[in-house]
Amino acid sequence: MIMVSVDDHVVEPANLFAGRLPSKYADLAPRFVTREDGTNAWRYGEEEIGNVALNAVAGRPPEEYGMEPTALDELRPGTYDIHERVKDMDANGQLGSLCFPSFPQFCGQLFARTPDKDVALAMVQAYNDWHIDEWCGSYPARFIPCSLPAIWDPETIAAEVRRTAAKGAHAVTFSENPSKLGWPSLHSELWDPLWTACSDEQVVVCMHIGSSSQLVITAPDAPMDVLINLTPMNIVQCAADLLWSPVLRKFPDLKIALSEGGIGWIPYFLERADYVYQKHHYWTHQDFGDKLPSEVFNEHVITCFIDDQFGLASRKYLNMDNVTWECDYPHSDSTWPTAPEALMKQLEGVDDRDIERITHTNAMRHFSYDPFSVIPKEQCTVKALRERAAGHDVSIRSRAKHVGHAGTLATDLAAPR
Asked: How many domains does the chain have?
């Protein structure tokens, strides 16, 4: 088996911006600092961004999970060190990885809040150059570059997509609900320059849960379990926006990835969409031509899952050419370091062709990712990678100096950032 994850995460290293900004902006770069309590944070302008523990708990026992800020030395080195990351991937039997950002937020909200947009763009471009050239470029066969958007302006975001595509980035992270961030919604034509650029350059738009800086929450005193249980609902809402907006019909070559959204909800969602269209389009004036909404969805939308046995059991109702797998390292939902074993439990009865599509060939095709041009295919299997990682420590052990308690912090986690 060959495994390529289309959703992992990076905890950015302290030297990210070193030498990557024009001299006139160098003093404005985010700074990695150590607080009085020993925890670490990034300072940018008037903002200070800590590392939330659920963001990087790989290798720690579950009882130490929490929402408290952490120090870099409490984290597994593979969260922020590219060489250790590849060792962790090898030990997990994982060939490829697409990594989303952490402290700038999913679609660069931190930089978008910068009043001077020339400075903001310089920060986004420096981040993207680091991500493409250093993080991904250190091991070019192992990573799928995913650029950060200059989200505050449609022409600027389109230009940056084209610039980073020329450097090899065929994915861009974007908000699953930009209206929650104060920008026009997915129903607006304002984003057309972005969709055009992504279509032209064969760039997949990755919409990750939580990229609207909000999560589904039912009540201020709801326990954290409610929020975690409902996180995929962000993506269901995003799917509805996409499907009923003009975007997918207007841009026939556009591909959207619903990152970390799971797949088990899709059959009913599409059944309901087709029913709504057939019953109501006469007065809502939706026009899908000679297609049903489900057909349009299946042409454009890449679906992604970590652990979804029900979704795999429903695969006859899915477009299996668009289903992809995620490891989610180093987040709390990740199946690292036993991802192959976890996935194989769900793949019982699935034929080899579908297994290959889920585990790597769909990701390779959609994201223009060709690891076999660098590493012989026989060296890319779970078995071969794990043999290379023999002796690498993947034991679960305590790392925390500041152990917190989740309590009812759902409100805090879902608050706009």
From this structure: 1
Q: What is the CATH number of the domain that holds 120?
A: 3.20.20.140
Inter-residue contact 136 to 130 (CB < 8 Å): no
Backbone angles phi, psi at 206, to 5 degrees: -95, 115
Instruction: Give the Cα separation of 66 and 13 in Å (integer).
Output: 22
For strand 204-208 and strand 256-259, is the pairing parallel, antiparallel, or unpaired? parallel
Mean model confidence pLDDT for the chain: 93
Question: How long, in residues, is the chain?
Answer: 417
pLDDT band at 277 (very low <50, low <70, confident <90, very high): very high
What does 222-255 look like in DSSP terms, one character per residue?
Answer: --HHHHHHHTHHHHHHHHHHHHHSSHHHH-TT--
CA distance 324 to 255: 13
Asked if residues 53 and 379 have their Cβ atoms less than 8 Å apart, the reply is no
DSSP 246-259: SHHHH-TT--EEEE
How far is it, in rounded angstroms, from Cα 289 to Cα 98? 35
Percent with pLDDT over 70 in the chain: 95
Look up residue 279 and give its two tokens. 């019953």
Q: Is 166 helix (H, G, I), strand (E, B) or coil?
A: helix
Structural domain boundaries enclosing 16: 4-414
